[in-house]
Each structure stands twice: as C-alpha cells, then as structure tokens.
Amino acid sequence: MISKNEIKRIRSLHNKKGRKEAQQYIVEGEKSVREAMHAGGHLVSLYVLETASIDILEQGQLIAEKDMKQISAFTSFSPALAVLKMTESNVDYERLSKQKVLALDGIRDPGNLGTIIRTADWFGISTVLLSSDCVDIHNPKTLQATMGSFLNVDVIQGELHEMIGQLQKHNPNFQIYGAVLNGEDSKVINGSPRPGLLIIGSESHGISAAIQELCTMRLTIAGKGKAESLNASIAAAVLLSDWTTN
Fold first, then answer.
1. N or C terminus of the chain with fewer C-beta within 10 Å?
2. CATH number of 4-85
3. Per-residue model confidence as pLDDT tens digits over 45-98
4. CA pair distance 112, 66, nearest whole angstrom
5. What interhelical angle do 110-122 and 232-244 show, nearest 10?
6. Could you report how far apart the first and last alpha carbons of the chain are, in Å?
7. Does the fold of domain 93-244 match that of domain 4-85?
C-alpha cells in the first residue's frame, strides 16, 4: 500500500524543480533499477509490481498497477521504480585535464542527451560536461535513454565556459575541439592520444558563439548528401569513434 502523500511526493520528482528541492530522482525499469542498486546508488525507496523479477520483488514495496501508473513518468510503466538520492560530484580539473572529455552545449532533448551519454560510455569517455541550458541529467526520459550508462559516466552541469577555463588552467596544452559545419575534416583527430575536450552543440543551433571562441580547433564530419546537419547523438558517435580509435 502506498499513501496518497507518497504518490504526490514521487510525482513531484517528474519535474526539475521537485527533484532539486528533494535532491532525489526516479529510475524506472528493472534493468536500470538493478544496475543502480549494484552500483551502490543511494536508494531511498523501491516500488514494484507482482510481475517484477524475484530479485527486484524481494527488495521492493509491492504496490498495485493503478498506483504504479500514477507514480511512473511514462505511459507504458515498468514493474519497478526506484527513488534515489542525488550525489554531488567533486570536479577534479587536474585529473580531467589529462583525459578525453565530452561536453554538450544546449542539448535540450532528453532522449538525445541520454543517447549521447550511453555513446560516451561505449567509447570509454568517463566524464561529460553539460552547459547550464542543457536538459537535466535526472530527467526520467534522459535516464531511460542512457540504458544504465548514467551510472558509469560522471555528468557535471554548470557554466561551460568556466569549466573550460579550469581545464585550460590546469593544462595549457589542453585541446578544445568544436563540432561545426565549416571546420576541418574530423578525421584529423583519428586516434589522437592527446587529452582534450570535444564539444557537441544542438542540431538546431550548434555550439554557441561564446563557446566557439574558446575552441582551439573546429571540426566537421564530411558528408556526401544534401542533409543540412546530423542529429547531435549521431554526430557525437561519429566523432567519438574517430577520436578514440587507435
């Protein structure tokens, strides 16, 4: 049995304001819930349907389908929903300045953001920086699209130009690559061992002018057709493949 007040509280986590105030967020789906628990996520509560897998069922609070429907952020709800406590990431710029890092500027579609985080995880990128106007990492649709990869990648949101400044302060030779429509062929970074930051902007607006000014190199994915641009998540996959393949 779940109370009306608890249902109301969980529903408040569907929006950014509610998540920020409570410092909590929800994860849905047995796979993601299971991975969150295995990764040591700070579990606040777990709600399950009787159709959930035994390992999940034994650890959660059994509720009715009508209640799961009310607390789920999705029309097609799953048998498991977890409420997790947010944790703060301490940014170690000294460490990051020696690595390959991905940054996203103005990505507002939660599905795109989640897919890019999953792609970054695939290519071994351990940190993703988000501009302040990117969609919230804890948006339920974003987390669902990561397919559990949000647990493997540190995602830090803030003022992107300030974070770039810190990286360059700790490593004056730190490269800042920006994905644009009129830059150098992206193949120039194939297998580059040098640490740096790869910035992807939104499909509609690209990288902001202020951030472009900070780029030490502008990159373009060569195309052969008539399409004006690539989807941001596709562009990220192509560039990360070039950048991380030896």
1. C
2. 3.30.1330.30
3. 999 999 999 999 999 999 999 999 999 999 999 999 999 999 887 899 999 999
4. 30
5. 10
6. 55
7. no
Split at pLDDT 50, 70, 90, the class of 8 is: very high
Distance between CA atoms of residues 166 and 63, nearest Å: 48
Superfamily of structural domain 93-244: SPOUT methyltransferase, trefoil knot domain (3.40.1280.10)
Domain ranges of the chain: 4-85, 93-244
Q: Is the dihedral of CA 145, 151, 152, 158 positive or negative?
A: positive
The pLDDT mean for the chain works out to: 94
Q: How far is 104 from 242, CA to CA, in rounded Å?
A: 17
pTM, rounded to two decimals: 0.91
Residues with Cβ within 8 Å of 18's Cβ and at least 6 positions away in sequence, in order, are 12
